[in-house]
């Protein structure tokens, strides 16, 4: 154990994070409709398949496997799993509501009561143990019908459909849930619009226009959710959520420094600039002009965005990136949807994601300096090959070291004056990977005996990191 002199706030929210589509399973139970994730195959070629312009939004059981259909069966095991979270001492649990459990087709006028009741039960189970639910309203789980019939977020009708959905869950749960986020990793649209916007790039000449128009509609929808939340209870906190990848220039060449600034600003800051500062940033004018983008902005849109900004920034941080004006033949690396130049000063995970805890400290300082709103690290973790040893033990010291280094980086950021609300490690229990659809890529403190083919007992076994994280929480991060 390592003692930190730096202090986390007394009310710091320690916990873990998951997404409905990656662990619930029961994809046709309880009145649930199909979501976009239900038609996305698992396996290492997942991203290649969904980036294909001919992706058809159909299930092909003869060609592919669909691990999300069963997940880890949290739909039936949530009581046992939440009890394990409570044993670790979680102060909060970040989870998402599956949109298609509440509105199976997405465009209905009345919600599915059976789906609403399920989340009543989940939140009640959390609160029984004093665990605060932190809820993502939309986490890569758009009802499939909204993607196929309407074309996803490029269609303004989705603002209306999302408002109905968000109003429904906010009204139903606001007395149980204090912390909300609107869209998971909203800036992932720049790389895979299917996940967050519900469509694939069909035409390279129009796709950027569609993505930015989709983002505009999401900004409106997010502000409407903030407005509704504050009307229900002025103390509700409704935040935005982005991927943040701290980035470095390849070298001190001014051309590379400028390239890094431009790319970082667009990826790391654009969505937060609109959602937190409440207006489109000045630098976007140059981008829109260069790419011939003309947004359909209707009367009242900009006022809505201005008047109802996000209360805090939730963000995922897994790795940093290196940028250059002309990457050319420089060696590349990949991770969390990002592709960048390999950093020779960093080691990488089993899946090639470079490990950079100092980058998290930089991210926290950059974000707080820029926005001056509370921050929440809602995803951070290590996907690795875990081995179930004799006696059902998993000695994941590599995960402990990864998290120790990142928690220490957070502590140093807090010492620098950063207002940090909490930390929810991804994913606190093994689940289906979003990027590859694998179970083999394990993040959790809890091992789930299910393999990539969906075979196994489904039994849960605490890993070594389970007991380590329990001590971290008990000591409020003083013993890591």
Automatic annotation (TrEMBL):
Keywords: Glycosidase, Hydrolase
Family annotation (PROSITE patterns): GLYCOSYL_HYDROL_F1_1, GLYCOSYL_HYDROL_F1_2
TM spans (from-to): none
Annotated InterPro entries: GH, GH_1_N_CS, Glyco_hydro_1, Glyco_hydro_1_AS
Top-rank taxon, per record: Bacteria
Gene Ontology terms: biological process: carbohydrate catabolic process
Active site: 379 (nucleophile)
GO terms, molecular function: beta-glucosidase activity
Pfam families to which the protein is assigned, alphabetical: Glyco_hydro_1 (PF00232)
Gene3D superfamilies cross-referenced by the UniProt entry: Glycosidases
GO cellular component, one term: cytosol
Family of the protein in this entry: Belongs to the glycosyl hydrolase 1 family.
Record protein name field: Glycoside hydrolase family 1
Annotated source species: Sebaldella termitidis (strain ATCC 33386 / NCTC 11300)
